[in-house]
Amino acid sequence: MVMTDAIAYLGPRLKEIRSKTGLSLREIARQLKVSPSFVSQIENGKSQPSVATLYALAKLLSVPVDVLFEPAGDPVAASIKSQDIDEVDRSNFDRPTEVWDISRARISAVNPNNRSIITMDSGVSWERLAATSEESVNFMEIIYAPGAETNKSGEMIFHNGFEYGYALEGELELTIGDLVLQLSAGHSMGFDSSIPHRFRNTSSGTFRGIWFVHGCSVPHS
Amino acid sequence: MVMTDAIAYLGPRLKEIRSKTGLSLREIARQLKVSPSFVSQIENGKSQPSVATLYALAKLLSVPVDVLFEPAGDPVAASIKSQDIDEVDRSNFDRPTEVWDISRARISAVNPNNRSIITMDSGVSWERLAATSEESVNFMEIIYAPGAETNKSGEMIFHNGFEYGYALEGELELTIGDLVLQLSAGHSMGFDSSIPHRFRNTSSGTFRGIWFVHGCSVPHS
DNA sequence: GCAGATGTTCTCTACTAGTTAACACTAGGT
DNA sequence: ACCTAGTGTTAACTAGTAGAGAACATCTGC
After folding, report:
1. Which nucleotide is nearest to A25 (CA to C1')?
2. Residue B197 in contact with residue B173, Cβ under 8 Å?
Protein backbone atom coordinates (compact mmCIF):
# COMPACT_ATOMS: atom_id res chain seq x y z
CA MET A 1 0.00 0.00 0.00
CA VAL A 2 1.18 3.45 -0.83
CA MET A 3 0.29 4.77 2.55
CA THR A 4 2.18 7.99 2.18
CA ASP A 5 1.65 9.72 5.43
CA ALA A 6 -1.22 11.77 4.20
CA ILE A 7 -1.50 13.36 7.58
CA ALA A 8 1.87 14.91 6.96
CA TYR A 9 0.27 16.91 4.19
CA LEU A 10 -2.25 18.27 6.58
CA GLY A 11 -0.21 21.13 7.99
CA PRO A 12 1.07 22.69 4.78
CA ARG A 13 -2.20 22.05 3.04
CA LEU A 14 -4.06 23.81 5.77
CA LYS A 15 -1.76 26.77 5.66
CA GLU A 16 -2.19 26.98 1.93
CA ILE A 17 -5.95 26.92 2.06
CA ARG A 18 -6.11 29.37 4.90
CA SER A 19 -3.92 31.85 3.08
CA LYS A 20 -6.28 31.70 0.15
CA THR A 21 -9.15 32.73 2.33
CA GLY A 22 -7.16 35.70 3.59
CA LEU A 23 -7.98 34.79 7.14
CA SER A 24 -5.27 35.24 9.69
CA LEU A 25 -4.11 32.43 11.84
CA ARG A 26 -5.38 34.22 14.90
CA GLU A 27 -8.76 34.73 13.34
CA ILE A 28 -9.03 31.03 12.64
CA ALA A 29 -8.01 30.31 16.19
CA ARG A 30 -10.65 32.64 17.54
CA GLN A 31 -13.41 31.06 15.52
CA LEU A 32 -12.27 27.58 16.38
CA LYS A 33 -11.92 28.61 19.98
CA VAL A 34 -8.40 27.34 20.28
CA SER A 35 -5.21 29.23 20.88
CA PRO A 36 -3.39 30.85 17.96
CA SER A 37 -0.23 29.06 18.88
CA PHE A 38 -1.93 25.76 18.43
CA VAL A 39 -3.08 26.61 14.94
CA SER A 40 0.50 27.50 14.15
CA GLN A 41 1.70 24.22 15.57
CA ILE A 42 -0.76 22.36 13.42
CA GLU A 43 0.21 24.20 10.28
CA ASN A 44 3.86 23.49 10.89
CA GLY A 45 3.26 19.86 11.64
CA LYS A 46 4.41 20.22 15.22
CA SER A 47 1.11 19.02 16.53
CA GLN A 48 -2.03 17.37 15.30
CA PRO A 49 -5.62 18.38 15.93
CA SER A 50 -8.29 16.12 17.28
CA VAL A 51 -10.97 14.91 14.93
CA ALA A 52 -13.33 17.47 16.36
CA THR A 53 -11.07 20.41 15.59
CA LEU A 54 -10.14 18.88 12.26
CA TYR A 55 -13.76 18.77 11.31
CA ALA A 56 -14.40 22.26 12.60
CA LEU A 57 -11.43 23.43 10.60
CA ALA A 58 -12.76 21.93 7.39
CA LYS A 59 -16.14 23.45 8.03
CA LEU A 60 -14.64 26.81 8.74
CA LEU A 61 -12.68 26.80 5.52
CA SER A 62 -15.66 25.26 3.77
CA VAL A 63 -13.74 22.45 2.21
CA PRO A 64 -14.49 18.76 2.45
CA VAL A 65 -12.30 17.14 5.03
CA ASP A 66 -10.61 15.05 2.40
CA VAL A 67 -8.91 17.93 0.67
CA LEU A 68 -7.00 18.60 3.85
CA PHE A 69 -5.25 15.30 3.31
CA GLU A 70 -4.21 16.11 -0.19
CA PRO A 71 -0.68 17.34 -0.77
CA ALA A 72 -0.34 21.08 -0.75
CA GLY A 73 0.11 22.81 -4.04
CA ASP A 74 -2.85 21.36 -5.85
CA PRO A 75 -4.26 23.94 -8.18
CA VAL A 76 -7.39 25.57 -6.97
CA ALA A 77 -8.93 26.26 -10.31
CA ALA A 78 -12.25 27.94 -10.41
CA SER A 79 -14.10 26.59 -13.35
CA ILE A 80 -16.40 29.55 -13.59
CA LYS A 81 -15.05 33.03 -13.64
CA SER A 82 -16.61 35.61 -11.48
CA GLN A 83 -17.74 38.10 -14.05
CA ASP A 84 -21.29 36.91 -14.29
CA ILE A 85 -21.64 36.04 -10.68
CA ASP A 86 -23.19 38.35 -8.17
CA GLU A 87 -23.41 36.28 -5.17
CA VAL A 88 -22.34 32.94 -3.96
CA ASP A 89 -24.94 31.31 -1.87
CA ARG A 90 -23.13 29.96 1.10
CA SER A 91 -25.94 28.97 3.32
CA ASN A 92 -24.14 25.75 3.92
CA PHE A 93 -20.74 27.29 4.20
CA ASP A 94 -19.36 30.02 6.31
CA ARG A 95 -16.42 31.25 4.39
CA PRO A 96 -15.77 32.58 0.96
CA THR A 97 -13.52 30.41 -1.08
CA GLU A 98 -13.05 30.03 -4.73
CA VAL A 99 -16.27 29.88 -6.56
CA TRP A 100 -16.32 26.27 -7.22
CA ASP A 101 -14.24 24.04 -5.39
CA ILE A 102 -10.91 22.76 -4.62
CA SER A 103 -11.48 19.09 -4.80
CA ARG A 104 -9.92 17.08 -7.54
CA ALA A 105 -11.09 13.62 -6.89
CA ARG A 106 -11.17 10.92 -9.49
CA ILE A 107 -14.53 9.92 -8.18
CA SER A 108 -17.13 12.33 -6.99
CA ALA A 109 -20.59 11.56 -5.70
CA VAL A 110 -22.96 14.30 -4.71
CA ASN A 111 -25.91 14.11 -2.43
CA PRO A 112 -28.74 16.38 -3.58
CA ASN A 113 -28.92 17.96 -0.14
CA ASN A 114 -25.30 18.81 -0.18
CA ARG A 115 -24.52 20.54 -3.41
CA SER A 116 -22.40 23.60 -4.01
CA ILE A 117 -24.63 26.29 -5.34
CA ILE A 118 -23.99 29.39 -7.34
CA THR A 119 -26.73 31.95 -7.48
CA MET A 120 -26.79 34.34 -10.39
CA ASP A 121 -28.44 37.71 -10.30
CA SER A 122 -31.59 37.17 -12.26
CA GLY A 123 -33.14 34.13 -10.64
CA VAL A 124 -30.73 31.71 -12.18
CA SER A 125 -28.73 29.27 -10.14
CA TRP A 126 -26.42 26.35 -10.73
CA GLU A 127 -25.92 23.40 -8.49
CA ARG A 128 -22.85 21.36 -9.04
CA LEU A 129 -23.54 17.68 -9.62
CA ALA A 130 -20.04 16.32 -9.61
CA ALA A 131 -16.52 17.53 -9.11
CA THR A 132 -13.89 15.41 -10.74
CA SER A 133 -10.35 16.20 -11.61
CA GLU A 134 -11.33 17.32 -15.05
CA GLU A 135 -10.91 20.94 -15.76
CA SER A 136 -13.22 22.87 -17.98
CA VAL A 137 -16.09 20.57 -17.33
CA ASN A 138 -19.19 21.49 -15.43
CA PHE A 139 -21.93 19.08 -14.61
CA MET A 140 -24.78 20.81 -12.90
CA GLU A 141 -28.43 21.29 -12.33
CA ILE A 142 -29.57 24.67 -13.52
CA ILE A 143 -32.62 26.40 -12.21
CA TYR A 144 -34.40 29.29 -13.88
CA ALA A 145 -37.08 31.05 -11.91
CA PRO A 146 -40.11 32.23 -13.88
CA GLY A 147 -39.04 35.13 -16.06
CA ALA A 148 -35.36 34.57 -15.37
CA GLU A 149 -32.90 34.78 -18.20
CA THR A 150 -29.24 34.18 -18.78
CA ASN A 151 -28.48 37.80 -19.16
CA LYS A 152 -30.90 40.45 -18.08
CA SER A 153 -29.52 42.86 -20.60
CA GLY A 154 -30.77 40.54 -23.29
CA GLU A 155 -27.37 40.17 -24.83
CA MET A 156 -26.29 36.84 -26.12
CA ILE A 157 -23.20 35.17 -24.81
CA PHE A 158 -20.81 32.76 -26.39
CA HIS A 159 -17.76 30.88 -25.31
CA ASN A 160 -15.61 27.94 -26.26
CA GLY A 161 -16.84 24.45 -25.86
CA PHE A 162 -20.10 22.61 -26.04
CA GLU A 163 -23.18 22.63 -23.95
CA TYR A 164 -25.70 19.87 -23.37
CA GLY A 165 -28.97 19.98 -21.51
CA TYR A 166 -31.84 17.81 -20.39
CA ALA A 167 -35.03 19.34 -19.06
CA LEU A 168 -36.29 17.91 -15.79
CA GLU A 169 -39.26 20.17 -15.28
CA GLY A 170 -40.71 23.40 -16.59
CA GLU A 171 -39.93 25.13 -19.83
CA LEU A 172 -36.97 27.05 -21.13
CA GLU A 173 -36.74 29.04 -24.29
CA LEU A 174 -33.38 28.67 -25.93
CA THR A 175 -32.17 31.16 -28.46
CA ILE A 176 -29.15 29.76 -30.25
CA GLY A 177 -27.94 31.76 -33.16
CA ASP A 178 -31.07 32.62 -35.06
CA LEU A 179 -32.78 29.48 -33.89
CA VAL A 180 -35.35 29.61 -31.13
CA LEU A 181 -36.47 26.43 -29.49
CA GLN A 182 -38.55 25.50 -26.55
CA LEU A 183 -37.14 22.94 -24.12
CA SER A 184 -39.72 21.17 -22.01
CA ALA A 185 -39.53 18.27 -19.60
CA GLY A 186 -37.92 15.21 -21.10
CA HIS A 187 -36.50 17.11 -24.04
CA SER A 188 -32.81 17.47 -24.50
CA MET A 189 -30.32 19.24 -26.70
CA GLY A 190 -26.71 20.08 -27.29
CA PHE A 191 -24.95 22.79 -29.19
CA ASP A 192 -21.67 24.44 -29.92
CA SER A 193 -21.30 27.17 -27.33
CA SER A 194 -19.41 29.40 -29.66
CA ILE A 195 -22.74 30.16 -31.27
CA PRO A 196 -24.19 33.17 -29.48
CA HIS A 197 -26.99 32.03 -27.23
CA ARG A 198 -29.39 33.08 -24.54
CA PHE A 199 -31.90 31.22 -22.36
CA ARG A 200 -35.08 32.51 -20.87
CA ASN A 201 -37.83 31.02 -18.78
CA THR A 202 -40.94 32.46 -20.38
CA SER A 203 -43.28 30.22 -18.46
CA SER A 204 -44.87 30.76 -15.09
CA GLY A 205 -43.19 27.77 -13.46
CA THR A 206 -39.64 27.09 -12.38
CA PHE A 207 -37.39 25.42 -14.89
CA ARG A 208 -34.93 22.77 -13.79
CA GLY A 209 -32.53 20.94 -16.02
CA ILE A 210 -29.40 18.85 -16.06
CA TRP A 211 -26.68 20.75 -17.80
CA PHE A 212 -23.31 19.85 -19.05
CA VAL A 213 -20.83 22.49 -20.12
CA HIS A 214 -17.60 21.27 -21.45
CA GLY A 215 -14.45 22.67 -22.97
CA CYS A 216 -15.44 26.00 -21.54
CA SER A 217 -12.09 26.98 -20.19
CA VAL A 218 -12.52 30.63 -20.96
CA PRO A 219 -16.12 31.59 -20.44
CA HIS A 220 -15.97 34.64 -22.61
CA SER A 221 -14.66 35.92 -25.90
CA MET B 1 -27.10 25.55 10.05
CA VAL B 2 -27.62 22.28 11.73
CA MET B 3 -24.14 22.18 13.12
CA THR B 4 -24.92 19.18 15.23
CA ASP B 5 -21.75 17.70 16.51
CA ALA B 6 -21.01 15.80 13.38
CA ILE B 7 -18.33 13.92 15.22
CA ALA B 8 -21.11 12.31 17.20
CA TYR B 9 -22.20 10.61 14.01
CA LEU B 10 -18.80 9.12 13.58
CA GLY B 11 -19.22 6.09 15.78
CA PRO B 12 -22.54 4.78 14.49
CA ARG B 13 -21.62 5.71 10.96
CA LEU B 14 -18.43 3.79 11.21
CA LYS B 15 -20.20 0.76 12.57
CA GLU B 16 -22.70 0.93 9.77
CA ILE B 17 -20.10 1.11 7.07
CA ARG B 18 -17.99 -1.58 8.59
CA SER B 19 -20.94 -3.94 8.82
CA LYS B 20 -21.51 -3.41 5.11
CA THR B 21 -18.03 -4.55 4.36
CA GLY B 22 -18.53 -7.69 6.36
CA LEU B 23 -15.28 -7.09 8.14
CA SER B 24 -15.21 -7.89 11.81
CA LEU B 25 -14.26 -5.35 14.37
CA ARG B 26 -11.22 -7.36 15.26
CA GLU B 27 -10.15 -7.58 11.66
CA ILE B 28 -10.34 -3.83 11.35
CA ALA B 29 -8.33 -3.47 14.52
CA ARG B 30 -5.68 -5.81 13.22
CA GLN B 31 -5.27 -3.94 9.98
CA LEU B 32 -5.24 -0.59 11.72
CA LYS B 33 -2.84 -1.98 14.26
CA VAL B 34 -4.90 -0.87 17.19
CA SER B 35 -6.65 -2.94 19.80
CA PRO B 36 -10.10 -4.36 19.09
CA SER B 37 -11.41 -2.77 22.21
CA PHE B 38 -10.47 0.61 20.93
CA VAL B 39 -12.37 0.12 17.70
CA SER B 40 -15.37 -0.83 19.77
CA GLN B 41 -14.94 2.24 21.90
CA ILE B 42 -14.86 4.40 18.82
CA GLU B 43 -17.93 2.80 17.32
CA ASN B 44 -19.86 3.31 20.50
CA GLY B 45 -18.78 6.88 20.87
CA LYS B 46 -16.87 6.14 24.06
CA SER B 47 -13.67 7.35 22.54
CA GLN B 48 -12.42 9.23 19.54
CA PRO B 49 -9.61 8.33 17.20
CA SER B 50 -6.72 10.57 16.31
CA VAL B 51 -6.65 12.09 12.85
CA ALA B 52 -4.12 9.51 11.79
CA THR B 53 -6.30 6.57 12.72
CA LEU B 54 -9.34 8.34 11.36
CA TYR B 55 -7.63 8.68 8.04
CA ALA B 56 -6.38 5.11 8.11
CA LEU B 57 -9.90 4.02 8.90
CA ALA B 58 -11.35 5.84 5.93
CA LYS B 59 -8.68 4.40 3.70
CA LEU B 60 -9.28 0.94 4.98
CA LEU B 61 -12.99 1.15 4.33
CA SER B 62 -12.25 2.97 1.10
CA VAL B 63 -14.59 5.82 1.74
CA PRO B 64 -13.77 9.52 1.67
CA VAL B 65 -13.23 10.81 5.16
CA ASP B 66 -16.23 13.06 4.86
CA VAL B 67 -18.77 10.29 4.75
CA LEU B 68 -17.69 9.25 8.21
CA PHE B 69 -19.13 12.51 9.46
CA GLU B 70 -22.48 12.00 7.85
CA PRO B 71 -25.29 10.72 9.99
CA ALA B 72 -25.63 6.98 9.98
CA GLY B 73 -28.51 5.40 8.20
CA ASP B 74 -28.21 6.75 4.75
CA PRO B 75 -26.60 8.99 2.30
CA VAL B 76 -24.00 7.77 -0.07
CA ALA B 77 -21.29 5.33 0.13
CA ALA B 78 -20.83 1.85 1.24
CA SER B 79 -17.78 -0.09 0.39
CA ILE B 80 -15.99 -3.30 0.17
CA LYS B 81 -12.58 -4.32 1.19
CA SER B 82 -9.59 -3.60 -0.91
CA GLN B 83 -8.80 -6.46 -3.17
CA ASP B 84 -6.63 -5.72 -6.07
CA ILE B 85 -8.44 -5.38 -9.29
CA ASP B 86 -5.85 -7.16 -11.28
CA GLU B 87 -7.04 -8.10 -14.65
CA VAL B 88 -10.03 -6.76 -16.42
CA ASP B 89 -11.14 -8.07 -19.71
CA ARG B 90 -12.97 -5.69 -22.00
CA SER B 91 -14.55 -8.19 -24.22
CA ASN B 92 -17.38 -7.25 -26.46
CA PHE B 93 -18.48 -3.76 -27.31
CA ASP B 94 -20.07 -2.68 -24.11
CA ARG B 95 -19.65 1.01 -24.11
CA PRO B 96 -21.75 3.64 -25.76
CA THR B 97 -18.68 5.26 -27.04
CA GLU B 98 -18.19 4.64 -30.67
CA VAL B 99 -21.64 3.35 -31.18
CA TRP B 100 -23.04 6.68 -32.21
CA ASP B 101 -21.03 9.62 -33.29
CA ILE B 102 -21.78 10.10 -36.86
CA SER B 103 -23.65 13.31 -36.72
CA ARG B 104 -22.15 16.64 -37.52
CA ALA B 105 -24.68 19.21 -36.45
CA ARG B 106 -23.67 22.20 -34.45
CA ILE B 107 -27.05 22.27 -32.82
CA SER B 108 -29.12 19.28 -31.94
CA ALA B 109 -32.45 19.09 -30.20
CA VAL B 110 -34.13 15.81 -29.43
CA ASN B 111 -37.73 15.08 -28.73
CA PRO B 112 -38.20 12.32 -26.17
CA ASN B 113 -40.49 10.42 -28.51
CA ASN B 114 -37.99 10.50 -31.24
CA ARG B 115 -34.71 9.33 -29.82
CA SER B 116 -32.24 6.92 -31.27
CA ILE B 117 -32.22 3.93 -29.03
CA ILE B 118 -29.78 1.15 -28.53
CA THR B 119 -31.02 -1.82 -26.61
CA MET B 120 -28.56 -4.18 -25.06
CA ASP B 121 -29.47 -7.77 -24.46
CA SER B 122 -29.23 -7.65 -20.73
CA GLY B 123 -32.00 -5.13 -20.01
CA VAL B 124 -29.81 -2.12 -20.55
CA SER B 125 -30.57 0.53 -23.10
CA TRP B 126 -29.28 3.91 -24.12
CA GLU B 127 -31.21 6.71 -25.68
CA ARG B 128 -29.29 9.48 -27.31
CA LEU B 129 -30.13 12.93 -26.01
CA ALA B 130 -28.12 15.06 -28.38
CA ALA B 131 -25.89 14.66 -31.35
CA THR B 132 -23.49 17.46 -31.99
CA SER B 133 -20.36 17.65 -34.03
CA GLU B 134 -18.25 16.73 -31.06
CA GLU B 135 -16.62 13.41 -31.29
CA SER B 136 -16.11 11.21 -28.34
CA VAL B 137 -19.01 12.67 -26.45
CA ASN B 138 -22.19 10.90 -25.62
CA PHE B 139 -25.12 12.47 -23.92
CA MET B 140 -27.82 9.94 -23.23
CA GLU B 141 -30.49 8.54 -21.02
CA ILE B 142 -29.60 5.13 -19.75
CA ILE B 143 -32.15 2.62 -18.60
CA TYR B 144 -31.42 -0.41 -16.48
CA ALA B 145 -34.20 -2.93 -16.01
CA PRO B 146 -34.41 -4.58 -12.58
CA GLY B 147 -31.48 -6.91 -12.21
CA ALA B 148 -29.74 -5.61 -15.29
CA GLU B 149 -26.04 -4.97 -15.18
CA THR B 150 -23.39 -3.48 -17.38
CA ASN B 151 -21.80 -6.76 -18.01
CA LYS B 152 -23.61 -9.93 -17.25
CA SER B 153 -20.36 -11.71 -16.76
CA GLY B 154 -19.79 -9.43 -13.82
CA GLU B 155 -16.50 -8.21 -15.17
CA MET B 156 -15.51 -4.64 -14.80
CA ILE B 157 -14.74 -2.42 -17.71
CA PHE B 158 -12.65 0.68 -18.13
CA HIS B 159 -11.84 3.13 -20.86
CA ASN B 160 -10.43 6.59 -21.37
CA GLY B 161 -12.35 9.68 -20.44
CA PHE B 162 -14.79 10.67 -17.80
CA GLU B 163 -18.31 9.70 -17.04
CA TYR B 164 -20.99 11.71 -15.31
CA GLY B 165 -24.43 10.64 -14.23
CA TYR B 166 -27.62 11.95 -12.68
CA ALA B 167 -30.29 9.58 -11.42
CA LEU B 168 -33.81 10.34 -12.57
CA GLU B 169 -35.59 7.41 -10.99
CA GLY B 170 -34.85 4.08 -9.40
CA GLU B 171 -31.59 2.91 -7.96
CA LEU B 172 -28.32 1.85 -9.46
CA GLU B 173 -25.41 0.27 -7.71
CA LEU B 174 -22.13 1.59 -9.01
CA THR B 175 -18.94 -0.28 -8.43
CA ILE B 176 -16.01 1.97 -9.23
CA GLY B 177 -12.65 0.60 -8.30
CA ASP B 178 -13.15 -0.81 -4.86
CA LEU B 179 -15.81 1.71 -4.05
CA VAL B 180 -19.45 0.72 -4.13
CA LEU B 181 -22.07 3.38 -4.08
CA GLN B 182 -25.78 3.52 -4.50
CA LEU B 183 -27.17 6.10 -6.88
CA SER B 184 -30.76 7.00 -6.20
CA ALA B 185 -33.05 9.63 -7.65
CA GLY B 186 -31.60 13.11 -7.46
CA HIS B 187 -28.11 11.91 -6.70
CA SER B 188 -25.31 12.48 -9.13
CA MET B 189 -21.70 11.58 -9.64
CA GLY B 190 -18.76 11.66 -11.94
CA PHE B 191 -15.62 9.62 -12.20
CA ASP B 192 -12.57 8.86 -14.21
CA SER B 193 -13.60 6.06 -16.54
CA SER B 194 -10.15 4.56 -16.53
CA ILE B 195 -11.03 3.19 -13.12
CA PRO B 196 -12.56 -0.22 -13.64
CA HIS B 197 -16.27 -0.01 -13.06
CA ARG B 198 -19.55 -1.86 -13.28
CA PHE B 199 -23.16 -0.88 -12.75
CA ARG B 200 -26.03 -2.99 -11.60
CA ASN B 201 -29.66 -2.40 -10.83
CA THR B 202 -30.16 -4.34 -7.63
CA SER B 203 -33.58 -2.90 -6.97
CA SER B 204 -36.95 -4.13 -8.15
CA GLY B 205 -37.74 -1.02 -10.17
CA THR B 206 -36.40 0.36 -13.40
CA PHE B 207 -33.49 2.73 -13.18
CA ARG B 208 -33.30 5.76 -15.44
CA GLY B 209 -30.52 8.31 -15.48
CA ILE B 210 -28.94 11.05 -17.51
CA TRP B 211 -25.46 10.01 -18.52
CA PHE B 212 -22.58 11.81 -20.02
CA VAL B 213 -19.56 10.00 -21.35
CA HIS B 214 -16.79 12.13 -22.59
CA GLY B 215 -13.23 12.07 -23.73
CA CYS B 216 -13.57 8.43 -24.51
CA SER B 217 -11.89 8.79 -27.83
CA VAL B 218 -10.01 5.57 -27.70
CA PRO B 219 -12.12 3.04 -25.91
CA HIS B 220 -9.80 0.27 -26.80
CA SER B 221 -6.25 0.23 -27.85
C1' DG C 1 -18.61 -29.99 26.57
C1' DC C 2 -14.80 -27.23 24.08
C1' DA C 3 -12.53 -24.15 20.74
C1' DG C 4 -13.15 -20.34 18.15
C1' DA C 5 -15.33 -16.65 16.55
C1' DT C 6 -17.93 -12.20 17.76
C1' DG C 7 -18.49 -7.41 20.37
C1' DT C 8 -18.29 -4.98 25.12
C1' DT C 9 -16.58 -2.82 29.37
C1' DC C 10 -13.79 -2.30 32.79
C1' DT C 11 -9.06 -0.23 34.66
C1' DC C 12 -4.94 2.07 33.82
C1' DT C 13 -1.13 4.99 31.77
C1' DA C 14 1.89 7.10 28.32
C1' DC C 15 1.40 10.54 25.51
C1' DT C 16 -0.37 14.55 23.27
C1' DA C 17 -3.84 18.11 22.30
C1' DG C 18 -4.07 22.41 23.65
C1' DT C 19 -2.67 26.25 26.93
C1' DT C 20 -0.07 30.34 28.48
C1' DA C 21 3.70 33.07 27.92
C1' DA C 22 7.13 35.36 25.79
C1' DC C 23 9.32 35.76 21.29
C1' DA C 24 10.41 38.36 16.62
C1' DC C 25 8.83 40.43 13.22
C1' DT C 26 5.91 43.79 10.15
C1' DA C 27 3.07 48.25 8.86
C1' DG C 28 0.93 52.72 10.43
C1' DG C 29 0.22 56.71 13.20
C1' DT C 30 1.93 60.42 16.16
C1' DA D 1 12.18 57.72 16.75
C1' DC D 2 8.40 55.47 19.78
C1' DC D 3 4.18 53.60 20.15
C1' DT D 4 0.50 50.66 19.24
C1' DA D 5 -1.83 46.58 16.89
C1' DG D 6 -1.34 43.41 13.66
C1' DT D 7 1.12 39.11 11.97
C1' DG D 8 3.31 34.13 12.88
C1' DT D 9 6.56 31.17 15.97
C1' DT D 10 8.30 28.62 19.82
C1' DA D 11 9.27 27.13 24.19
C1' DA D 12 7.44 24.88 28.95
C1' DC D 13 3.90 22.96 31.03
C1' DT D 14 -0.40 20.03 32.12
C1' DA D 15 -5.02 18.17 32.03
C1' DG D 16 -7.19 14.96 29.40
C1' DT D 17 -7.64 11.32 26.42
C1' DA D 18 -6.04 7.97 22.85
C1' DG D 19 -5.28 3.53 23.11
C1' DA D 20 -3.75 -1.01 25.55
C1' DG D 21 -4.82 -5.17 28.14
C1' DA D 22 -7.41 -8.12 30.22
C1' DA D 23 -11.55 -10.19 31.47
C1' DC D 24 -16.29 -10.15 30.13
C1' DA D 25 -20.61 -12.12 27.72
C1' DT D 26 -22.27 -13.77 24.04
C1' DC D 27 -22.97 -16.64 19.76
C1' DT D 28 -21.79 -20.20 16.52
C1' DG D 29 -20.08 -25.06 14.81
C1' DC D 30 -17.73 -29.41 16.09
Report:
1. D8
2. no
Q: Which residues of chain B does A105 touch, with a Cβ-Cβ cutoff of 8 Å?
A: 64
CA-to-CA separations, A199 to A46, A139, A175, B40, in angstroms, rounded: 53, 18, 6, 55
Domains of chain A (ranges; CATH) run 6-69 (1.10.260.40), 82-214 (2.60.120.10)
Identify the residue with better confidence: A181 or B57.
Answer: B57
D19: residue with closest CA to C1' = B38
Give pLDDT tens digits for B74-97.
433 332 222 222 212 222 233 333
Distance of alpha carbon B52 from its chain centroid, rounded?
Answer: 26
Nucleotides of C under 7 A from a protein CB: 5-10, 16-22
Whether nucleic acid strand C comes within 7 Å of the CB of B36, the answer is yes
Say if residues A210 and B210 touch (Cβ distance below 8 Å). yes
Q: Rounded distance, CA A119 to CA B41, Å?
A: 43
> 3-state class of B6 per DSSP?
helix
Confidence of residue A185 (pLDDT cuts 50, 70, 90): confident
Mean pLDDT score of chain B: 70
Task: Give the residue from A121, A122, A117 showing the smallest Cα distance to A201.
Answer: A122
Q: Would you say B170 and B203 are in contact if contact means Cβ atoms under 8 Å apart? A: yes
Where does the pLDDT of residue B19 fall: very low under 50, low under 70, confident under 90, or very high at 90 and above?
A: confident
Bases on strand D under 7 Å from any protein CB: 6-11, 17-23
**In sequence order, what DSSP letters do the residues of A39-94 get, joined into one string?**
HHHHHTTSS--BHHHHHHHHHHTT--GGGGGSPTT-----SS-GGG--B---SS-S
**Is the per-residue pLDDT at A1 higher than 80?**
no
Inspect the interface and report whether the beta carbons of B108 and A189 lie closer than 8 Å.
yes
Q: Hey, are the CB atoms on B189 and A108 less than 8 Å from each other?
A: yes
pLDDT at res. B130:
74
Alpha carbon of residue A9 to chain centroid: 24
> Across-strand partners of A137?
A214
Q: Do B189 and A49 touch (CB under 8 A)?
A: no
Test the B interface: residue of A54, A111, A163 with most B CBs within 10 Å = A111
Q: What is the DSSP string of B41-110?
A: HHHTTSS--BHHHHHHHHHHTT--GGGGGSPTT-SSEEE------------S--SSTTTS-----SEEEE
